[in-house]
Amino acid sequence: MKWAGVPNSNTGGPVVLASDVRHVPLTYDPQRPDLDPTSIPAESLVEAEPGDWWTIGRRIRLGRAAAPLLAAEDRETYAIGALPPPYDRLAREVDGQAVFAAGLLAGDPIWAEVPVPLADRWSPAELTYRATFQADGAVLRIDGHDGGDVDWYSADGGSADDPAVPAVRREVIPSRLDYPGAPLPRWWQIEDRAVDIGGYAPDRSHFASMLLLDAVLAHSDDWFGCHIPAPEGASSLLRRADFRRTYVAVAVSELGDAFQYIALMWFALVAGGPLGVIAVRLADSIPALLFGLHGGVVADRWDRRRVMISADLVRGIVLVPVAIAGLSGHLPLAMLVAAAFVLTAAASYFDPAYGGLLPELVDRRNVQ
């Protein structure tokens, strides 16, 4: 966002502002491309520690994998010491992190999943963090960060010597600057006594109040703000035919699922009373335990669109006889229980396939 000040209290109207805009990706650690600052909060990256990856579960799991390969004295040396309840059962287990840090079994496949350790950004002398981000050759430096949110104002940046992304000329007409608590633009305008001009805490959604509050209160100039056009957002996805078809299909499917659930519970109450509702609820809970993991495997190995379509077809085939029996007044509880089981089993395959398909249809920046 770009803000322009027009230093003349008698300005009759705004001017056209031309600017050269480049939208470039923001990166953090070249050795860890998985640490994407566009999806991971910047403060989590800056304040991370080298050993953060080593959760207690990973230390135990990799320690157990390494234990058979170690000498007896090494197993004793790198064992976890006494622990308080309820963790005391893990005492004397081999500590995988300690074994890895000691360089034992270097190159062994058991360490394949261990990532490159994060750089330690903490300065014990200053009790603050230091870190750098990159944006198309430009370096953004964060110095003296003592914890909390990291935003654009936390970094000092420089220009790129040879930017790879070309600039695009944008022309916009500034509009009068406005934000919560902003003073009126003319000296002769009477302020609302109920508005505390300085009582609005600056935040990242009210950029202007943080940047220009002092200047606005100190000078009589008019201030105008102009928005630099940003890349197309999530709404542009609806112009993609494949995403639009999937969106409409899933919306219809989800709407049908909502009505289906209400109908099943109603018929279960009519057919078996409260116990009938409990029976149907149990029947639609069990498939998630039985087929949930297999549904994820199928979604990874098979065409996800076909899996989703097949799952919906199964649900449709099951619901047609249920609907006919319900309308005729002859819908036994056993049929409802069986239908609930099959419907949730089909959903155990539909949901992982949908979760895996969505990132394929959109850019990474649109996945949240």
- Whole-number count of domains: 3
Task: Tell me the series of helices and strands, N- to C-terminal.
Answer: EEHHHHEEEEEEHEHHHH
How would you characterize the largest beta sheet? 4 strands, antiparallel
Overall pLDDT, averaged? 78
Distance between the termini: 23 Å
Low-confidence stretches: 1-11
Q: What level of helicity do the residues show?
A: 40-55%
Number of helices: 9
Short précis:
This protein is α+β, with helices and mostly antiparallel strands.
Descriptive account of the structure:
It is extended and about 75 Å long. Strand 3 and strand 4 form a beta hairpin. The protein has three domains: 2-23 and 169-226, no CATH class; 56-111, no CATH class; 236-366, no CATH class. It contains nine helices and nine strands. The model is unreliable at 1-11 (pLDDT under 50). With 368 residues, the protein is an alpha+beta fold.
In terms of topology, how is this protein built?
Layout: E1 2-6, E2 17-21, H1 42-46, H2 56-66, H3 72-77, H4 96-101, E3 122-123, E4 128-135, E5 138-145, E6 156-157, E7 168-172, E8 175-176, H5 207-218, E9 222-226, H6 241-283, H7 286-301, H8 304-328, H9 333-361
List keywords for this structure.
single chain, 368 residues, alpha+beta, 3 domains, 4-stranded antiparallel sheet, 3-stranded antiparallel sheet, 9 helices, extended
